[in-house]
## 1
Amino acid sequence: MKKILVIDDNAEIRKLIKVSVGTKYIVTEAISAVDASLRLEDDKPDLILLDIMMPGVNGLDWCKLIRRWYEYSDIKIILISALIQQNEIIEGLQAGANGYITKPFSPTHLLSEIERVLNEQIV
């Protein structure tokens, strides 16, 4: 079973995601970028669901950082954010994300995007 790490400072969002995809994937949680960095050392996920607006290191900066770490650069990342402007979405994808979901989101759309990203082939 593939592993997903959910990084969001909002406990309700983490719970919604876990309930939405927890039967298909192993879901672990982190409340911040620092917490997530520690979890990466213990258990490398196949995919990260990453909130952009978090205290401390924000999701965009953390996404850029992960893309520079060779041992984690192949992890798929989907940004989840209330930022919905086209330029904000483009900035997220340019930071190295494989996908972008805006809040609020439906569990069906979330699952569909996770499956799309996990099935992407690198050319």
## 2
Amino acid sequence: MSNTFFETIKAIDGKVLNLSYHQARYESVLNYFGINKSQNLKDFIQPPKNGLCRCRLTYDISKTYIEVTYHEYNKREISSLKIVYDDSIEYSMKYANRDKLDELFSLRGECDDILIVKNSLITDTSIANIAFFDGSRWITPASPLLRGTTRERLLREGKIFEEEIAVNDLEKFSQVALMNAMIDFDIITKNAKDFCAR
């Protein structure tokens, strides 16, 4: 894998949201590679004062630099997922190299995105963590590919709960929600078993 990683951070009218969770993940990547000196991400972010903005912070652990770019955000509408299987995929850190995810995404057929199954368990879509409503609680896979910042925040707030979810478990859920830094917690109203194509 590459030494380059990134964070996608949401800003509204110049206000940066949930930065502490991005800072924590950035520091965890550095710590994993034995780098003890981190930088304060807020020192690098100066988003536009008006509108919704996607801030992309790219950093290379071998060069210790942080590059920031700002992008107008256009939400991708997702109303269907294609279930794809890959037991070897590894994306536990937010690598800038997304070639494997892009390869799986190309298998989506007529669906809007994919739902990745690894070792018989539901993990994530290509761009988001996922949660399912069982009638009383929102359940998110206990073994995601990437532990997203929004997922982490909602777990800490007690709004979602972790469980292992197999493909056959999808039939018992009534709703689906996607989670990432830009969409926060986006509930999809379709029934889970109809939303996910085998």
